[in-house]
Structures are given as C-alpha cells and as structure tokens.
C-alpha cells in the first residue's frame, strides 16, 4: 500500500508540475526536457533511489547528499502543488471574467514566478527544523485520585539513523536529565536501521537518569530492522520495556503500563493486549498511565479504565495541512492533550522524526516534561 501510494503521489506531482509550470514556459523544448530531470528526481524520490542504490524502499543505501537533495526536491514539489492549487482557486473568479483575460494571464505568470522559489525556500527551512535538537515542553495534567505529584520526562520517535548519531542523542540525554524527573518514558520508534550500524548512536541512552527508572514501549518502526536484537541491546542500556505488562514505579503513586505496537504481528511478536497488561493491577484508585506508541489505542485504553495515555507516532503532523491528514488516520489524535470520556491522551510532537520525510513547519520537536498533578492540586 505504501509503495503504491508513493508512486501515485509521485505521478501526480510530476504530471501536474509539468502541465502547469514547465510546459507553458517560453523556452526551447530541450530545456523543458532538462527541467524534467530534477522534477522526476523529486517526484519519484523513493522508487528512484531504491532502484539505483538498493537497500530499503524508504531507506536506500545512497550517499547522504543524494538522499537529502532528492528529499528537498520532493518536499518542494509537495509545497509547490499546494501553492498552485490555492493560487488557482483564488484566481478562479478572474478566469471566469473573459474580458479581463490579459490581466489574468499576467497576474498568473507573476504568481507562478513566485511560487517556485517560495516552495524551495520553505522546503529548505522545514528540513533544517526537522533535524534541529528538541526543546523542552512543559505540560501539566490533572489526574483523578493521584495522591502526590509525579514528574515524567517523555521521549518519543527518536528515529536514530545516519543523520542523527551519538552527538545528537547525547544532547537529548543531557536535556532530559536536567529535568530531574521521577520517571523517564520512551514511547517507541527508536531507530531506522540495523543494530550493527546504529548501536553507537543510541549508546548515550544508558546515561538517562530518573528517580524511579526508565521505561519504554516499541513503535512500528522498531519492527523493521531486527526487533529482538534491538530490544535486547536497549535493555542492556537500562531501559525497561513494558511488553503488555505494568509496574508500580517508586512509591506506587501510579500504575505504569505499556503495550506493544500493532505492527508487532509483522515480526511474529505479541500484538497489543491491554487486558493482559493490566491484569493484576491494584484494585484501589491508583491511576493508570499507559504508554502506547500509536494514539489510536485510546479507545481500548478508555474501555479498560486507563486515566492517561502517552503516545507519539504522528510527529505532531509535522506541518499544517499534513496535520489534518495525519489526524484522519489516528482517530483525530495528532498533537497535544485530548479527552475521551474519562481518558486523557497526550500526543507528543516527537523528539525527532523519520528522515524519509524530513520536514517540520510550526511543529517543533520536543522533550516533554509532564507534571502529573492531583485533580484539585496546582
């Protein structure tokens, strides 16, 4: 499905840009053919790099500068398509006024001349933001029946790859430790690659510090490159994985639970089972905090009496426009704090993101400092 969707998107980008921009240009036909080369490299970025260099369809074994260049062109084309659609809608009334046709054509050519550089510059800025270090975001959440405040440092969507190495994660660890949280939690998508390539990149995670431990669950990307080997390695770094199970960290102010990801089935791993993970939890009013990589686990969490779910996966939608599309595939849960019956769901923007689409705009990466407070506390 992903491959078919990618090819279809590439075809739309290529044909529409060729039809609306390149073909009407007042130049020789061979110049137009030459312009089709970068257009094709951007529009068919994934299949082209995979065909030439091999590796993985969404993670080809090509030089970094080649992948970054093609990603820049691909993102620029998506932005350009959006700009062109908006421009055509705004100019539609003038198109209908045939007596103003000359003025319409002149205005349209002027706007077209502006759209391309705006798209290229916006794509470059968004890619810069995509690789920027995350900032700390403070979030306060009131929990019924919580006896004492609890502070949590939340990381998610680390996506270690050849672009983000040990230096990046060392700084993430330093910023996380500075929060002096009671608990550190990581809600999946640790890496995009094999253990033998990326183990040194995530080695700084062994230095994460908290009063009551470091806990994690897997994300869908963690089942693409050797799940079991990665989990054994990360466990040796001091990270406790909650695979459909729960713990009472520290003095037991909360029940901390975690589920596997729905993608587990592709690697013959146990699927998410909230009923199993909560079996045997205290029968009193101790609130339950669930770690689930994908926010769409919320319906099942609410049915099992969970008070708070912490998730990532969406990267906050990455940018306006895309955010609304991402929300449709995640039950409307894409960024920030939501309420579903008695359940609260916090969806983080992600500590980093997948470099297959390295773009952020008005959606900064975050290390989330969550303050769990009693319902009537401050």
- Number of E-type strands: 14
Query: What average pLDDT do the residues reach?
Result: 91
Tally of alpha and pi helices: 11
Characterize the largest beta sheet: strand count, sense, and whether it forms a barrel: 6 strands, mixed
Which oligomeric form is depicted?
single chain
Q: Which segments are poorly predicted (pLDDT under 50) over 5 or more consecutive residues?
A: none
Sheet-strand content, in percent, reads: 15-25%
- What structural category arises from helix and sheet content? alpha/beta
Helix content: 40-55%
The end-to-end span amounts to 47 Å
Give the overall shape. Answer: elongated
What does this structure look like?
There is one protein chain. It contains eleven helices and 14 strands. The protein is α/β, with parallel strands linked by helices and 378 residues long. Helix 1 runs antiparallel to helix 2, helix 1 (2-22) packs across helix 4 (64-96) and helix 4 packs antiparallel against helix 5 (101-130). It has helices spanning 2-22, 29-43, 45-53, 64-96, 101-130, 166-177, 195-202, 227-236, 274-278, 298-303, 322-328, and strands at residues 55-56, 59-60, 135-143, 150-155, 183-187, 214-217, 239-241, 245-247, 255-258, 288-291, 308-311, 336-340, 343-347, 366-374. The strands form three sheets. The protein has a six-stranded mixed beta sheet with strand order 3-14-4-5-6-7. The protein has a six-stranded mixed beta sheet with strand order 8-9-10-11-13-12. The longest helix is centred in the N-terminal third of the chain and has 33 residues, at 64-96.
């Amino acid at each position: 499905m992903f491959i078919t969707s990618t090819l279809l998107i590439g075809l739309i980008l290529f044909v529409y840009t060729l039809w609306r921009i390149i073909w009407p240009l007042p130049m020789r036909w061979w110049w137009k053919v030459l312009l089709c080369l970068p257009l094709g490299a951007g529009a068919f970025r994934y299949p082209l790099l995979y065909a030439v260099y091999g590796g993985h369809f969404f993670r080809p074994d090509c030089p970094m500068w080649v992948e970054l260049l093609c990603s820049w062109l691909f993102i620029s084309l998506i932005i350009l398509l959006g700009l062109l659609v908006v421009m055509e809608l705004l100019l539609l009334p003038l198109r209908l006024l045939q007596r103003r046709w000359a003025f319409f054509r002149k205005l349209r050519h002027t706007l077209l001349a502006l759209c391309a550089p705006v798209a290229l510059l916006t794509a470059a800025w968004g890619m810069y933001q995509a690789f920027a270090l995350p900032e700390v975001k403070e979030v306060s959440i009131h929990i019924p029946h919580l006896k004492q405040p609890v502070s949590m440092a939340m990381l998610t969507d680390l996506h270690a790859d050849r672009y983000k190495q040990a230096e990046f994660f060392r700084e993430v660890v330093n910023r996380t430790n500075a929060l002096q949280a009671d608990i550190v939690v990581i809600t999946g998508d640790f890496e995009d690659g094999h253990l033998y390539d990326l183990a040194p990149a995530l080695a700084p995670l062994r230095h994460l510090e908290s009063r009551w431990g470091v806990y994690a669950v897997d994300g869908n990307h963690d089942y693409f490159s050797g799940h079991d080997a990665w989990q054994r390695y990360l466990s040796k770094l001091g990270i406790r994985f909650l695979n459909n199970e729960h713990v009472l960290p520290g003095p037991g102010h909360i029940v901390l639970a975690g589920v596997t990801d729905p993608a587990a089935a592709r690697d013959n791993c146990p699927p998410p089972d909230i009923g199993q993970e909560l079996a045997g939890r205290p029968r009193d009013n101790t609130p339950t905090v669930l770690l689930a990589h994908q926010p769409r686990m919320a319906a099942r969490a609410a049915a099992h009496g969970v008070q708070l779910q912490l998730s990532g996966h969406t990267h906050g939608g990455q940018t306006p426009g895309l955010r609304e599309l991402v929300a449709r595939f995640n039950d409307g849960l894409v960024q920030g704090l939501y309420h579903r019956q008695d359940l609260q769901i916090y969806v983080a923007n992600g500590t980093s993101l997948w470099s297959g689409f390295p773009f952020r705009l008005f959606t900064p990466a975050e290390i989330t400092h969550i303050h769990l407070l009693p319902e009537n506390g401050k």
